[in-house]
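Why do we care about 3D structure at all? Because function follows from shape, and shape follows, mostly, from sequence. That is the central idea of this module. The next example makes it concrete: a single protein chain, its amino acid sequence, and then its structure expressed as tokens.
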Amino acid sequence: MAAPFSRVALIGFGEVGQTLGADLLAAGAAVTAYDILFANPGSLPSRAVSKVQVRAVRSAAEAVKDAELVIAAVTAASDLEAAESAAPHLPRGAFYMDVNSVSPGMKQACAAIVEKTGGRYVEAAVMMPIAPKRVASAMLLGGPHAHEFAERARPLGFTGVKPFSDMVGQASATKMCRSVMIKGVEALLCESMLAARYYGVDKTVLESLSDLLPVGDWEKLARYFVSRTLEHGTRRAEEMRESAKTVAEAGITPLMALATAEREDWSAGHKNALAYSNDLGGMLDAIRRNLENENAAAKAAE
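And the structure:
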């Protein structure tokens, strides 16, 4: 059996990077991290270093130079840039685990960059929010190095990893196509409930949904989904644009995925409604008050 990874580098120190960093430190790995926001001492990644005591460095090159495993956990828009900044400095044979939510085409482009410099690219599709199970979260792995990576990563706590395909792209295709459905339902519920609240029929609509689609407590589901769009709308919109690219790469016009991205982006502008996150009606009313204030301001400006 191959030895577990002992030297790990994180490219990106947002929520996912911080979570994995803390768990890998607890498992005994030496962890180095780089985030472009480290240049700003007041940024969230900079402040997080005092809580998750990884060794913070000033460049991707410095972070990866001695690493056995590099984990790229950046925004979807920065995935290619992260691979380009790290790949030339990877020790030969180092593993590069890409956990970012991007299209299969983007994963394949990153794989080509990493493999060209002697690194071993592993596609990872994180199939659940990272918070509940943290490093043990369910992840589908892709690429020719997936099985060897899993063997060395599981002792560090990556117990949810599953080698899925020897081809790069199929794991992310699974996640992105699922996102079209899940985040599409989020966007639909948000739009439906806001309109239903205006007409005073929101509870009746939810009861009707329970009759048609008996998936459990629809009010609880709607409250959860609407709160997710408010809290994570910007990031989810970015992921949905990658989902739209995934659909387009399959030769299909991504009408629904792009519309979902717009609604997620819109929802992020009403984050103050999260003050009522335990009350669906309260959240909807807070959003509607925002809309009324915006409409009043627009009329006053005419």
